[in-house]
Design brief:
It is built from 11 helices and 9 strands. It is α+β, with helices and mostly antiparallel strands and 252 residues long. It folds into 2 domains: 126 residues, Sandwich (Jelly Rolls), CATH 2.60.120; 115 residues, Homeodomain-like (Arc Repressor Mutant, subunit A). A hairpin with a 2-residue loop joins β4 and β5. It starts with a strand and ends in a 7-residue tail after the last helix.
Length: 252
């Protein structure tokens, strides 16, 4: 999914673990990213698949481009191992300077959002290389999403007729995460979706978790907050919108 936000005002938001990577590019002003007390800035960022929260800040921008990618795209877009992008917020110019320059030129020179989106789609499609990609990963990934992260790894492996060891390798090669960690992120994403969209309380145990203690541990691990603090954070309209727009289940 590709979006162009025009006339963006200043924002300061926290991104919680996401189930897919994305690229952000802005005109006029650099985006600041803070993670584990380290801050950096760039006009165009590559945000890898993450199991950690991070903060993004922007003063203002005439246009912001947001490219939401499928979890397995990065290694096919930039010809690096997916593990190089896991839990990383990178200046895209450090990964592929030519691609970054073209992306920024499109955003700067074109006025129409629809034209920008069309050109960016063409740019990405032309660059993708799916040679030697094991399509069994797609089946394993879909099963994980459909079961909201609650699926034993050995059951997935059995259903697609491969060993658990091979399944582990497929996940790491395609997205840089083990299936266990990705399942935990998916489960957490589903609980956030149900809270934001269905108004389900974070103070009760979501159906995808064994008990309240299990859920609290995951919330603290992924956000550094308690469920009460997380619920309060998500009551802010901008933070709520950010959480929703970065959620796997919005595009299910």
């Amino acid at each position: 999914m590709i979006r162009v936000v025009e006339g963006a005002s200043a924002f300061d938001v926290v991104f919680f673990p996401t189930g897919y990577p994305f690229i952000t590019s802005s005109t006029d002003s650099k985006t600041f990213v803070t993670k584990q007390n380290h801050s950096d800035s760039a006009y165009t960022y590559l945000h890898g698949l993450t199991s950690e929260s991070f903060k993004m800040s922007l003063l203002k921008a005439n246009k912001i481009l947001i490219i939401q990618l499928q979890p397995w795209i990065l290694c096919k877009l930039f010809s690096f191992s997916a593990t190089n992008f896991s839990n990383q917020e990178l200046s895209l110019a450090d990964v592929d300077k030519d691609f970054t320059n073209t992306l920024e030129e499109l955003l700067e020179s074109l006025d129409s959002a629809s034209e920008i989106i069309t050109k960016v789609k063409q740019l990405i499609t032309a660059k993708l290389n799916f040679n030697d990609f094991d399509e069994r990963f797609f089946a394993a990934w879909k099963m994980m999403i459909m079961n909201k992260g609650n699926l034993r790894i050995d059951n997935i492996a059995e259903d697609i007729n491969i060993s658990t060891r091979r399944l582990e390798q497929l996940y790491k090669d395609a997205i840089g995460f083990s299936p266990k960690l990705y399942g935990q992120v998916v489960r957490f994403q589903k609980s956030l979706f149900d809270h934001v969209v269905k108004n389900e309380s974070l103070l009760r145990t979501p159906l995808s978790y064994f008990d309240q203690a299990h859920f609290i541990r995951n919330v603290k691990r992924f956000t550094g907050m308690t469920p009460t603090q997380l619920s309060r954070s998500l009551s802010h309209p901008v933070q709520r919108s950010t959480c929703l727009n970065s959620n796997l289940y919005v595009f299910e």
